[in-house]
Amino acid sequence: MATLAAVNADLNSALEEARADFTRRNPKSCSLYDEACQELPGGNTRTALYYPPFPLTMLKGEGARLWDADGHRYTDFLNEFTAGVYGHSDKTIQHAIERAFENGVNRGAIGELEVKLARLIRQRFPSMELVRFVNSGTEANLLAIQLARAYTRRPKIMVFEGGYHGAVFSFSAPNNPMNAPFDYVRAQYNDIDATLALIESNAAELAVTVIEPMQAGGGCIAARPAFLEALRDACAKHHILLLFDEVVTSRLGPGGLQAMLGIVPDLTSMGKYIGGGLNFGVFGGRADVMSLLDARRPDALSHAGTFNNNVLTMAAGCAGFGEVYTAERAVALNSFGDRLRNRLNELCRKAGLAMQFTGMGSVMNVHFCAGELLRYADTKAGSADLKDLFFYDLLERGIYLARRGMMALSLPLAEADGEALLAAVNDFQKTRGSLIPKL
Is the pTM of this model over 0.70? Predict the structure, then answer.
């Protein structure tokens, strides 16, 4: 990809030019998008993948590389919003799926691999004394929340501004008409005093507190350990179940952030990479809570799902989570991510620009503002247009990431790929530095 040479006098002009260059470089993706708009509202079936003037159509992925419809090659720093930790063509997972397919796909029965995968998960996440499988992180959170409400016989759910727990649990805006119609108590992330006051005033009706130990969709903002510890103590005091949404953060260490922090939730939801890159979700936790789903009980709650234990995901999960993303490789990948993020932030400091990369381990997000970011509202101080410009400029430099500036590392990425990202960011800062606020 060519290095940008033009420096615009103002941000609007720079962004307009970047989008025009993007359109000229990608005529086939543009045409395919026009066709897609005839079949799908907005030309796609996943809102997060849209960006103006049209999203790229990717035709091939291999290792840590992607190729679009116009033949451009990218290093994949998005990796399916953290689900693609294995890259695009891991042979261990591929062979496991092929073997599973040979033995029949839709059996309509219990299979041996689901027990194996459950055991692998429980070994790494001991707080999950019993587990149930679903097809996505959204489902995992929905079922875990309903289970908590049934167990406690209370109606309310505490959530946090900026939190994202799936397609029907998004809290980046005051009111989301697509959210499941529960009675929510909305708290401020990392604000101990205000959160504890809300718990005290709603304790009699609160069934569960749902929190990401790091808000991924909210800009990769990590919770302070003291905040999570205070939350753990308050929930225990009032018999409110604490649900850690580790759909993203479970990949940040062998046992997720709960193990790294030494905080034991009552329930945990996960998904993404644990299914070997296929559709997957899991929720689990205390045996006394999860046993409400035990079909041997006369009062058992029902939990159905045709593909909860589908053989392809079970095979991919056992291979991927059990053989590929081992505890040792989890440590190595996240150490790589910490080093890379620290070097990116050093670039920002040396350039004297109000630009920073938040996150933990192998997951990070760029923001164009200075100062510590403790909650989602803090990230709004940065320019959304600068994030867009960063996105388009890095695409031209062969780096694929989320429009919102999120990046997630995968196992096939090498040190040289990290150097390429550093060079692209350094070039962006030199080219666009006049448009970025100074420290």
Answer: yes
Give strand pairing partners of 159. 186
Alpha carbons within 13 angstroms on the beta-carbon side of residue 398 total: 18
Q: Which of 154, 226, 156, 227 is nearest to 188 (CA)?
A: 227
Name the token pair of 366: 């760029």
CA–CA separation, 158 and 201 (whole Å): 12
**Number of separate helices (H) and strands (E) present in the chain:** 14, 16
Q: Which stretch of DSSP H or E encloses residue 215?
A: strand 214-215
Which residues, in sequence order, are bridge partners of residue 221? Answer: 215
Q: How many CA atoms lie within 13 A of 131 on its CB side?
A: 28
CB within 8 A of 341, min separation 6: which ones?
Answer: 357, 359, 364
Strand order from edge to edge, sheet including 399-400: 58-62, 65-68, 73-76, 399-400
Better pLDDT: 157 or 9: 157
Mean predicted confidence (pLDDT) in 67-87? 98
Q: CA dist 396 to 18, 61, 278, Å?
A: 9, 18, 29
pLDDT tens string 210-229? 999 999 999 999 999 999 99
Cα–Cα distance, 115 to 119 (Å, whole number): 6
What's the token pair of residue 92? 């261990």
- Give me the residues paired with residue 285 across strands: 130, 267
Contacts of 6 (CB under 8 A, 6+ apart): 17
In this structure, what are the phi and psi dihedrals at residue 206, rounded to the nearest 5 degrees? -80, 120
Site of tokens 């307009």: 16
- The pLDDT score that the predictor gives to residue 3 is 43
Closest CA to 322 of 257, 268, 275, 253: 275
Q: Are 165 and 146 in contact (CB under 8 A)?
A: no
How far apart, in whole angstroms, are the C-alpha atoms of residue 354 and residue 26? 31
Give the pLDDT mean for 19-45: 97
Closest CA to 309 of 176, 115, 439: 115
Pairing of strands 221-222, 214-215: antiparallel
Q: What angle do CA 277, 117, 127 make, to 5 degrees?
A: 105
Would you say 123 and 222 are in contact if contact means Cβ atoms under 8 Å apart?
no
Q: Which of 289, 284, 287 is nearest to 239 (CA)?
A: 289
Give the H or E element holding residue 208.
Answer: strand 206-211
pLDDT of residue 30: 98
Closest-CA residue to 91 (of 123, 62, 52, 124): 62
Rg (CA), the chain: 22
Yes or no: say if 273 and 321 are a contact pair by the CB < 8 Å rule.
yes
